[in-house]
Amino acid sequence: MERIMLRIEYDGTYFAGFQVQVNQRTVQLEIEKALKKMHQSDVRIHSSGRTDSGVHALDQVIHFDTALQLDEPTWKHALTTLLPKDIRVKSAQKVTAQFHARKDSTRKTYRYIVLNQKEHDPFRRNYEWHIPHSVDVERMKEAAELIKGTHDFTAFAASKTNVKGDKIRTIERIEVQKQDNRIYFDVTGDGFLTHMVRIIVGTLIHIGLGKKDKACIQEAFGTLDRRVLGLTAPGYGLYLKQVDYE
Question: pTM of the entire structure?
């Protein structure tokens, strides 16, 4: 048996998330269907993490075990042929049997894109969050600095989070940059809770709009109360940008 690591990207618009769900189209389902055609039997894949409905990936990592003896370019070509057009295999690599896409990941970077102009863009509606009002980017940058570091992020997690145990995570970097009429949020950390990046972005946007004060972030870390923060940003503006292994 060999273990294969794939780096993939996908448009999450028409997926109900990454993980297999009953009677739903998911990324995992489509990849496992393609692998089943190749193997004539079920093959289970393991990912670096789950993405929610509508969320996109520029660099998702998965692994699976196989008895097929194929070289790396053939794996990429074969799966590209079998997968739907909203999933693309960027690379295929043979790894050791000890490698695990989720357990061995050391950090992930997510990107969130906000379209900040009066008019919406009908062609980008599934890829950006449209905010038609003026946003104070400097206020958001100051607030973002308060999120960096190691904290209990319970208040930044959805109530339906599937994480058991402590919710302490380390955010290494948050960059907030405005380029023309778009605001980019890049968040790098050692792990993320359900909706964590979306709650971070929604809170920063509320601070930028003047609806919240940056003090709400320190209050959230102190009280672990979700209600002191801003709204949850919609999933379609979020991208899994990079998964790192060391």
Answer: 0.95
